[in-house]
Amino acid sequence: MKKFALLTNYSKDKRLVYTRMIKTYITENGGSYWIPRYISEPDKDGDQRYDFSDMPEDIECVLVLGGDGTLLQTARDTVGLGIPLLGINLGTLGFLAEVEKSGITDALDHLMQDSYEIMDRMLLSGSVIRDGKELLKAHALNDIVVNRCGHLMVLNYEVLVNGQLLCHYKADGMILASPTGSTGYNLSAGGPIVEPGARLMVMTPICPHTLNTRSIILSPEDQVEIVIAEGRDGQAQQAEVNFDGGQAQMLTTGDRIRVHQSEQVVRLLHINKVSFLQMLHKKMGEG
Length: 287
Description:
Blueprint: E1 3-8, H1 17-28, E2 32-34, E3 37-38, E4 50-51, E5 61-66, H2 68-77, E6 85-89, E7 99-100, H3 104-112, E8 117-130, E9 133-140, E10 143-148, E11 155-161, E12 164-171, E13 173-177, H4 185-188, E14 201-206, E15 216-218, E16 224-228, E17 238-243, E18 247-252, E19 256-270, H5 276-286
Parallel strand pairs: 1-2, 1-5, 5-6, 6-7
Antiparallel strand pairs: 3-4, 8-9, 8-19, 10-13, 10-17, 11-12, 11-16, 13-14, 14-15, 16-19, 17-18
């Protein structure tokens, strides 16, 4: 592997210390790099959207400098390209960006010597439906989250699986997570940790106002619908759906969020010989 795309979260490498180091190391070792142009201003976390439409066809992987949020945005921006990603963690607690600052040159050596594995991660596909019309369709590597917004009031939800009513919920929100996303918001909400190579969906209520607080594990072949139901005394409800904490859509009573496994996958490069359980042990100790 000699040809790389290089994407940097500039809020996490403000002086471009690591970006310049990687550029120099690649060229001094017979490789080349290409840098995509950004097409949006940084958000509150410093993440930007980048344009990969003119990426050279011989690019072999995308090096992503930042944190898990940067890698999630890059995964969405490169859906369908089939290019593997390697996350270099310049943030804090990262589960996706497996290379730490101290291991950058060692990681580049592995890549340039073709000593790596490519792991395909399941991707979620979600649509927002209002009055039978699709308002938004987006992908998520981690999770699709429905949250209340505005004044502090719990929301009423109906959850259907393959067209059949599963249950009613009163909760602050609902999380539909992939195995990769099980260590994100799902974990904070009390959901289970899932081995990232699995194929399944985890549904976890956020602060449910009921004794039923259990997560539900669903098949990847299932189609899940979360319906924003009427509030108390027939009041209209306001909510918001977020895809990997990025793309968002305001919701109101009657809106439906349909979620299923995407036909696409996200390809992540794996160079560490540390197992997921070993990494989990380390990260949980740090947290």
